[in-house]
Specification:
The complex is a heterodimer of chains A (about 450) and B (about 400).
Chain A: H1 2-21, E1 23-24, E2 57-66, H2 70-81, E3 86-89, E4 111-113, E5 119-121, H3 125-136, E6 140-141, E7 147-148, H4 150-164, E8 167-169, E9 173-180, E10 183-191, E11 194-205, H5 211-216, E12 220-222, E13 225-228, E14 231-234, E15 253-254, E16 261-263, E17 268-271, H6 276-299, E18 307-311, E19 316-317, E20 321-323, H7 331-335, E21 343-347, E22 353-355, E23 358-360, E24 368-371, E25 383-385, H8 397-400, H9 403-423, H10 432-441
Parallel strand pairs in A: 2-3, 2-11, 3-8, 11-25
Antiparallel strand pairs in A: 4-5, 6-7, 9-10, 10-11, 12-20, 13-17, 13-19, 14-16, 14-18, 15-16, 21-24, 22-23
Helix pairs in contact in A: 2-4, 2-9, 9-10
Chain B: H1 6-21, H2 38-48, E1 50-51, H3 56-67, H4 71-75, H5 78-89, H6 95-99, H7 104-117, H8 127-136, H9 144-162, H10 166-171, H11 173-192, H12 204-225, H13 242-248, H14 254-258, E2 264-266, E3 279-281, H15 295-299, E4 319-323, H16 338-342, E5 348-354, E6 357-362, H17 372-376, E7 382-386, H18 394-401
Antiparallel strand pairs in B: 2-3, 4-7, 5-6
Helix pairs in contact in B: 2-7, 3-11, 5-9, 7-11, 7-12, 8-9
The chains are: A alpha+beta (about 450), B mainly alpha (about 400).
The structure holds flavin-adenine dinucleotide and iron/sulfur cluster (2 copies).
Flavin-adenine dinucleotide binds next to helix 2, strand 9 and helix 9 of chain A.
C-alpha cells in the first residue's frame, strides 16, 4: 500500500509540476524593424536665378488642355463640341500619347460585367467613336479590347481634333502654371518659338504625369512603377515555319497590319518616371536590349526576314504622380457597383484580382463608375485632372491607368470645363445635372 | 416547470453547443464549446506543456467538477443529453451494461499519463470532440474522411438504443476523469485532512499505478511506432509537425469551420491513415491563406495549431511556390504582374530573364506558401508545393520539440 501511495503522489506531483512549468502558447512575430535612416547626405543642389522677363500671351481661351494623350484628345474634343473655345498643347508631333506614340496598341477595357452578370461594352462616347472610326478603316482588330494601328490612330485623332475646331499646338511643352492665388489662369509653354503664355478660364491637366497640378502646388502621391519600351516587328507573315530547325519564338501580338506585331515590355520595377536621368538611362538600355533581342530572333531558322520596325517614340512610363483629389476612388468602389451622383462615365476592367479573399477573374470584373470629384484637385481652382494621374488608390492602378479609363476621364473633364467656362462658374461649382446631360448628348454610356 | 432543473439547463447548453459547433463563420467563437472539456485540455497541456488564456474555460469546469462530481455531465454535456435520450427510447434493460467495468477512468488516466511522455492516447474519445466533429462535416466537401467524422456521433447515439447508458457510465474518458477527480478528493479528505467518515474506494492506488505506468510507457514507445507521413501535404500555419499533430488533434473541425477562405479540408489521404480528418490546406478551389487572418490558431482547442500573431505569419510556412515559366504571360510579352501585386510578403519580384523578357522570381525565404499568387495568376504558371516536412516555424519547434 505504501509503495502505491508513493507512486500516486509522484504522479500527482508530476502533473502539478508540469502545470507549473507550462508557459503561454502563442507565436509572436519579430518586432517591426525600423528602416535604416538614409545615410547618403545629398549635397544641396547648386542653383542659379533666371532673370525676370516679359512673356507674350499668344492666346486667351476658354479651355486649355495640356497633353494630347487619350485623355487630352478626349478632353479637347469634348470641350470644343460643348461650345467652348479650346486649345490643346502637345510636346510631341502626334496625338494619342502612349496609345499611339508609346505603341501601346490595345484599348483596354472596353467591356465589363453588369449587375445581371452580363458582360457588355462600356466604353462609348468619344472612345467608342475613335474605335469605330478605326474599325471602319479596318485599322482595329478584336471587338473586345481592340488593338489599333498607331499611325491610323494618329491620323483619326488629328482628323477629329480638326473637325471639332480645337486649336492644336504641337511641338510645345507646358512648363509652368500661371497662378493667381489658388486659381490657375493659364500655362506657360515653351518651344522653338520661345516661351509663351496661354491664358484660359479652365485648364485640364492631361500630361499623364500630372505636370500641371505639380506646378500649381497641389498635393499628390508619387508611384514608382515598371517602365518599359514597346517595339514593333515587321515581316511576321514571312516567317517560314517549315524551315528545318524552326522554333516558336515569343513575337508579341498581332496588329491590324498582318505583317506587323507589337511587342509589349514590362520593364524594370520601381522606376521613377519623372527623373530624366533615370529615363534616359532606361532608354539607352532598352533600345540596346530590344536590338539584341531581335537579332537573336533573326538567328532562329525561319525568322530571317523578321526585322525591328520601330521602337516607341514615347517611353512607357506607366505611373508617376497621382493627384490628391476631392474623392479617392477605391478598389472597393469598383468591385461593388458603387453609385456616384456625379458620375461622368463607366469603365471596364482587364485584370484578375483577389478581392476580400476571393479570386475575381478578368472577365467577371464588374463595371464601375467614375465620379467627377475624383478629377478635382483639392487645392487649385479651375484645374481638372484627367488620364492616368486622376485621384484613385494605388490598388486600383491597373484599371485606372488604361486607355479606356483615360478616355472616359478626359471626356468628362472636357465637358465639365466647357460648362464652367460657358456658365462663368468654377469647375467645383458646375451644375452636375448639366454635366450629365452634356455627356449623355455626347454619347457617354451611364448603364 | 423549474427551469433550474439539470434537464432544462442541459437542453439550453446543448442548443448553445450546437450553435457554436455549426459552421456559421463565427470567427473566434467557432467551436468555443470544445474548450470546456478538461480532458482535451489536460491532454494538450501534458503534451505541449503550454496553455492559452481560453483554457480558463476548461479549468473552471475542472474546478467545479472537483467538488461536484459529474456536474458537467448533468448540466452541460450535449453528448450526455443525446445518450440519455436514446437510452430512454431504446427498449433494452440495463442489466448487461451494469456488468461492464467502468473503463472511462482507465482511459482517462492512461491517456493523460501517455500525454506526459508523448502521445495523448484516447483524446479522440473526448465527447465534445466527437460532437464538434459531427458538425464539421457540414463545412467540407464530401470525402471518406468527412463521412467518418460525421458518423461518430450518430453511431454513439444509436448504440444507446441497445446498450442504454453505456457511454456516460462506462466509457467516456471525460466522465472518467471527473470520477477519478472525486475519488482523489475523497482520498485527500481522508488521508490528508484525516476525515474519518468518508469511504474511499479500495483500489485507487492500484489503478493509478497500472494505468499511469502503462500510459507513461505507451507515450514513450508508441510514437516511434507510427510511421512518418508518406505523402506530404499542406497544413495550416503554425501547425505541429507530422505525427505529433495527428495524435493531438481532436478532429473537432473548428479550424475547418473558422477558415474564412474555406481552404482547410479534412485530410483523407489513403496512405496517411494517422492523419485522417486532421486539417489539410487545399489550394484546389483557388482560395489562399489570408494575410490578415489567424483564426485557425486561435480556435484550435488543443494547440495542434498554435495561436499566432499576424506579424508572425511571415515566418509561418505553409508550403512553397513553384513557377513554370513557359506558361507565364510575361514569357509571351503580355502585360501582367498579378502575382507580384498580391503577395503580402513581398516574395515575388519581376526581373529580367533575358534582355527585355521579364519573369516572376520568388524569394523562397520570404514566400510562406499562402497561395495568393497561384490563386490570382491568370494562367497555370504558379502552383504550391508542400514543404518537405509538414511544418511550422522555428518558434513552434522550439516551443514543442525540446522535449523529444
Ligand atoms: C508599356 C505600357 C503598356 C501598356 N499597356 C496598355 C494596354 O495594353 N492597354 C491599355 O489600355 N493601356 C495600357 N497602358 C496604359 C496606357 O497606355 C496609358 O496609361 C494611357 O495611354 C495614359 O493616357 P494619358 O492620356 O493619361 O497619358 P499619356 O498617354 O501619357 O499622354 C500624355 C500626353 O501628354 C503629353 N505631355 C506630357 N507632358 C507634357 C507637357 N509638359 N507639355 C505638353 N505635353 C505633355 C505627352 O507627350 C503625351 O502625349 C500601358 C502603358 C505602358 C507604358
Ligand atoms: S505563395 Fe505567392 S503570394 Fe504567397 S507568399 Fe509565396 S510568393 Fe507570396
Ligand atoms: S500572375 Fe502568372 S502570368 Fe502573371 S506574371 Fe505572375 S506568373 Fe506570370
Amino acid at each position: 500500500m505504501k509503495r502505491r501511495d508513493f507512486v500516486t503522489r509522484i504522479i500527482v506531483a508530476g502533473s502539478a509540476l508540469s502545470m507549473g512549468v507550462s508557459c503561454g502558447r502563442k507565436i509572436e512575430g519579430d518586432q517591426q524593424e525600423t528602416p535604416a535612416p538614409l545615410s547618403e547626405a545629398t549635397e544641396p543642389q547648386r542653383t542659379i536665378t533666371e532673370p525676370a522677363r516679359e512673356i507674350p500671351v499668344i492666346a486667351e481661351t476658354d479651355v486649355l488642355v495640356i497633353g494630347g494623350g487619350p485623355a487630352g484628345v478626349a478632353a479637347a474634343i469634348a470641350a470644343s463640341r460643348a461650345g467652348a473655345e479650346t486649345y490643346l498643347v502637345e510636346r510631341y508631333n502626334h496625338l494619342g500619347g502612349l496609345w499611339t506614340g508609346g505603341l501601346v496598341l490595345p484599348l483596354l477595357s472596353t467591356h465589363a460585367v453588369d449587375k445581371q452578370k452580363r458582360r457588355k461594352q462600356v466604353i462609348y462616347g468619344l472612345g467608342g467613336e475613335m474605335a469605330q472610326r478605326l474599325f471602319d478603316m479596318e485599322m482595329a482588330i478584336h471587338e473586345v479590347n481592340p488593338i489599333i494601328d498607331p499611325e491610323a490612330g494618329k491620323y483619326i485623332l488629328d482628323e477629329m481634333i480638326v473637325e471639332s475646331g480645337v486649336k492644336m499646338l504641337y511641338h510645345s511643352w507646358g512648363v509652368n502654371a500661371i497662378m493667381e492665388g489658388n486659381t490657375i489662369k493659364g500655362v506657360f509653354i515653351e518651344s522653338k518659338s520661345g516661351r509663351q503664355a496661354v491664358l484660359a478660364k479652365v485648364v485640364i491637366d492631361c500630361t499623364g504625369d500630372g505636370d500641371v497640378f505639380h506646378w500649381a502646388g497641389d498635393s499628390y502621391e508619387t508611384m514608382n512603377y515598371h517602365i518599359g519600351l514597346v517595339h514593333r516587328l515587321g515581316n511576321i507573315d514571312r516567317i517560314d515555319k517549315n524551315k528545318p530547325g524552326y522554333k516558336k519564338m515569343p513575337l508579341g501580338q498581332p496588329t491590324p497590319i498582318p505583317s506587323v506585331n507589337w511587342v509589349n515590355m514590362h520593364g524594370l520595377n520601381d522606376q521613377d518616371g519623372i527623373d530624366m536621368q533615370n529615363l534616359s538611362q532606361l532608354q539607352l538600355q532598352y533600345r540596346k536590349e530590344i536590338w539584341e533581342s531581335v537579332e537573336r530572333i533573326k538567328k532562329v531558322p525561319g525568322h530571317e526576314n523578321v526585322f525591328l520596325l520601330d521602337t516607341a517614340s514615347q517611353m512607357g512610363v506607366r505611373m508617376s504622380r497621382i493627384v490628391e483629389g476631392e474623392y479617392k476612388l477605391t478598389l472597393e468602389d469598383t468591385m461593388t457597383f458603387k453609385q456616384f451622383d456625379d458620375v461622368i462615365g463607366i469603365s471596364g476592367a482587364w485584370t484578375s484580382m483577389l478581392y476580400k479573399g476571393n479570386k475575381v477573374l478578368a472577365y467577371e470584373r464588374p463595371l464601375w463608375q467614375i465620379p467627377y470629384r475624383s478629377l478635382l484637385p483639392k487645392k487649385t481652382e479651375n484645374l481638372l485632372v484627367a488620364g492616368r494621374c486622376f485621384c484613385f488608390e494605388q490598388a486600383l492602378v491597373e484599371d485606372t491607368r488604361i486607355i479606356g479609363t483615360c478616355l472616359i476621364t478626359g471626356h468628362g473633364a472636357g465637358a465639365a470645363a466647357a460648362i464652367a467656362a460657358n456658365d462663368r462658374v468654377t469647375v467645383r461649382e458646375i451644375d452636375r445635372q448639366k454635366l450629365r446631360k452634356t455627356l449623355e448628348e455626347q454619347n457617354v454610356w451611364f448603364g | 416547470m423549474n427551469l433550474t432543473k439539470p434537464k432544462y439547463i442541459r437542453r439550453v447548453s446543448t442548443v448553445v453547443a450546437v450553435l457554436l459547433a455549426l459552421p456559421l463563420q463565427l470567427g473566434i467563437f467557432t467551436g468555443l464549446y470544445m474548450w470546456l472539456s478538461p480532458f482535451a485540455m489536460l491532454n494538450s497541456l501534458f503534451l505541449l506543456k503550454s496553455m492559452v488564456w481560453l483554457n480558463i474555460l476548461g479549468w473552471s469546469i475542472l474546478l467545479v467538477s472537483f467538488f461536484r462530481n459529474r456536474w458537467f455531465c448533468r448540466y452541460m454535456c450535449p453528448v450526455g443529453l443525446g445518450c440519455d435520450s436514446f437510452s430512454k427510447w431504446g427498449k433494452h434493460s440495463r442489466a448487461f451494461v451494469k456488468k461492464i467495468p467502468r473503463l472511462g477512468r482507465w482511459l482517462a488516466l492512461l491517456s493523460l499519463a501517455a500525454a506526459l511522455t508523448g502521445i495523448p492516447f484516447f483524446i479522440l474519445l473526448d465527447p465534445l470532440s466527437v460532437f464538434n466533429g459531427f458538425f464539421a462535416a457540414f463545412a467540407s466537401d464530401i470525402s471518406l474522411a468527412v463521412i467518418v467524422s460525421f458518423i461518430g456521433l450518430p453511431v454513439l447515439l444509436i448504440i444507446h438504443l441497445f446498450l442504454p447508458g453505456i457511454w456516460c457510465g462506462k466509457l467516456c474518458p471525460l466522465g472518467g476523469l471527473f470520477d477519478e477527480l472525486s475519488t482523489w478528493r475523497k482520498w485527500i479528505a481522508k488521508t490528508l485532512l484525516k476525515k474519518k467518515n468518508i469511504s474511499t474506494e479500495q483500489n485507487v492506488g492500484r489503478r493509478m499505478f497500472i494505468a499511469s505506468g502503462t500510459g507513461l510507457l505507451a507515450g514513450v514507445f508508441i510514437p516511434s511506432l507510427l510511421h512518418a507521413e508518406r505523402k506530404q501535404f499542406f497544413r495550416p500555419p503554425a501547425s505541429l509537425r507530422g505525427n505529433l499533430f495527428n495524435t493531438l488533434c481532436v478532429r473537432c473541425g473548428s479550424c475547418i469551420k473558422a477558415c474564412p477562405s474555406d481552404i482547410i479540408i479534412h485530410h483523407s489521404g489513403k496512405k496517411n491513415l494517422t492523419a485522417w480528418m486532421t486539417p489539410e490546406i487545399s489550394f484546389e478551389n483557388k482560395g489562399y491563406c489570408l494575410e490578415d487572418c489567424n483564426l485557425c490558431g486561435t480556435v484550435c482547442p488543443t494547440g495542434s495549431i498554435s495561436p499566432f500573431t499576424l506579424n508572425a505569419k511571415k515566418k509561418l510556412f505553409i508550403g512553397s511556390i513553384n513557377i513554370r515559366l513557359e506558361d507565364c504571360l510575361l514569357s509571351d510579352f503580355k502585360e501582367c504582374d498579378r502575382c507580384k501585386s498580391v503577395c503580402s510578403y513581398d516574395a515575388i519580384q519581376i526581373v529580367a530573364s533575358q534582355n527585355i523578357m521579364m519573369k516572376p522570381l520568388a524569394d523562397l525565404n520570404k514566400c510562406v506558401g499562402c497561395g495568393a499568387c497561384a490563386a490570382v495568376c491568370p494562367t497555370e504558371t504558379i502552383s504550391m508545393i508542400p514543404l518537405k516536412k509538414t511544418t511550422s516555424s522555428e518558434e513552434v519547434s522550439q516551443n514543442t520539440y525540446e522535449f523529444f
